[in-house]
């Protein structure tokens, strides 16, 4: 059962019982958490967010305004869902056909970002620390650290844990994040890993504060 003393719910929002909501989570204006949802600690749900029953959400997840998260969705820690992005849970919906027992699973792995107005078709996995650009339409699994753009979305490059596109690899195959200095490498075709920090480890405090915007970096 939820314990309201451990989290914040705006007076205009609705939380149906029973559900699970972790300590420090904030649920803002006109949002609706439905019965059976499981939400971790220190999450933020903006205005007009709907979380359906059966959804599982980890810790430190940020969901911006006007996002609906449907049954069958699993969201790991540190995921960011941008304003008005679209998720689905049935691949072939029809008004006359009941498919409640055919909801497909969509998984957002730790640290993934989905940009504003992007669409993620159900039944796929969005990889760790990947980045789906604004307006993209994702129809297939997304690799870890992939930067996905376009309709349908295709990998436009690799992106760091700090959300900065990685430069061309050097002679040793190393790609260095311009913001953090962390080194990344394609350890096998299509598989990128950070060489300086375990993916399950939190960012050190001095690396968790942004120093420069992506647009500023592009000007250099």
Question: Strand tally, please?
Answer: 25
Shape assignment: globular
| CATH topological fold name of the largest domain | UDP N-Acetylglucosamine Acyltransferase, domain 1
Unreliable spans are: none
Identify the CATH class of the largest domain. Answer: Mainly Beta
Largest sheet: 9 strands, mixed
- Structural class designation: mainly beta
What is the H/E order? Answer: EEEEEEEEEEEEEEEEEEEEEEEEEH
What is the overall number of helices? 1
Helices, strands, pairings?
Blueprint: E1 8-9, E2 14-15, E3 20-21, E4 26-27, E5 32-33, E6 38-39, E7 44-45, E8 50-51, E9 56-57, E10 62-63, E11 68-69, E12 73-75, E13 80-81, E14 86-87, E15 106-108, E16 113-114, E17 119-120, E18 125-126, E19 131-132, E20 137-138, E21 146-149, E22 154-158, E23 174-176, E24 183-188, E25 191-194, H1 214-219
Parallel strand pairs: 1-4, 2-5, 3-6, 4-7, 5-8, 6-9, 7-10, 8-11, 9-12, 10-13, 12-15, 13-16, 14-17, 15-18, 16-19, 17-20, 19-21
Antiparallel strand pairs: 21-22, 23-24, 24-25
């Amino acid at each position: 059962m939820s314990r309201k003393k451990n989290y914040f719910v705006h007076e205009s929002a609705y939380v149906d019982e029973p559900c699970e909501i972790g300590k420090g989570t904030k649920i803002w204006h006109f949002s609706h958490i439905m019965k059976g949802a499981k939400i971790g600690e220190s999450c933020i749900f903006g205005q007009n967010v709907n979380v359906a029953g059966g959804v599982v959400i980890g810790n430190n997840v940020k969901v911006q305004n006007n996002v609906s998260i449907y049954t069958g969705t699993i969201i790991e820690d540190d995921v960011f869902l941008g304003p008005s992005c679209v998720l689905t849970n049935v691949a072939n919906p029809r008004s006359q056909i009941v498919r409640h027992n055919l909801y497909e699973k969509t998984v957002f792995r730790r640290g993934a970002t989905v940009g504003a107005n992007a669409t993620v078709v159900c039944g796929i996995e969005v990889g760790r620390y990947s980045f789906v650009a604004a307006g993209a339409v994702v129809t297939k699994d997304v690799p870890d650290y992939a930067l996905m753009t376009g309709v349908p979305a295709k990998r436009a490059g690799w992106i760091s844990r700090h959300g900065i596109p990685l430069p061309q690899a050097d002679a040793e195959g190393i790609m260095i994040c311009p913001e953090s200095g962390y080194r990344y490498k394609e350890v096998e075709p299509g598989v990128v890993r950070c060489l300086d920090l375990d993916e399950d480890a939190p960012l050190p405090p001095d690396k968790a504060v942004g120093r420069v915007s992506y647009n500023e970096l592009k000007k250099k």
